[in-house]
Amino acid sequence: xxxxxxxxxxxxxxxxxxxxxxxxxxxxxxxxxxxxxxxxxxxxxxxxxxxxxxxxxxxxxxxxxxxxxxxxxxxxxxxxxxxxxxxxxxxxxxxxxxxxxxxxxxxxxxxxxxxxxxxxxxxxxxxxxxxxxxxxxxxxxxxxxxxxxxxxxxxxxxxxxxxxx
Length: 165
Ligand code: SF4
Ligand code: SF4
Prior knowledge:
Elements: H1 4-16, H2 30-38, E1 46-48, E2 52-54, E3 65-66, E4 69-70, H3 78-82, E5 85-90, E6 93-99, H4 106-112, H5 114-133, H6 137-144, E7 151-158
Antiparallel strand pairs: 1-2, 3-4, 5-6, 6-7
Residues 21, 24, 26, 54, 62, 64-65, 70, 72, 76-77, 80 line the site of one iron/sulfur cluster (SF4).
């Protein structure tokens, strides 16, 4: 059975038109890069600017967005799965932030429905932990240097380091 809030969230995102995908440049770890290539994603959709990321078109839309929809939804990057949660890293701590309602309408729903918040927070925590574990310190520094205004910190979780990293 599909949860009612999930249908409501889909309707809100549809009406929004994927605002969060504009200039998103989701980061891609070496692990994620290999995974996406194995799924048949073209290497031309990536670029490097301090870290590997998805390109955007000149109008700011993500290279993977067509007609307001994500063409790689089933395998989309970790930060896309985590939204509207985002992150920063301070030493061995990952700080989790939530976007303000003013830039992401679905946040209001998450605040109104505890089950929705809990499920999306859980997915965000898992996705961000996985991404951070597979990024180098230099990549993380480049990603975390990007200012993310209109977000508020909601949690701190431990950073998991892979053996040898
Ligand atoms: S997650 Fe937020 S910003 Fe992204 S499409 Fe949905 S409502 Fe819009
Ligand atoms: S990969 Fe998909 S969900 Fe992520 S920014 Fe691009 S279009 Fe949006």
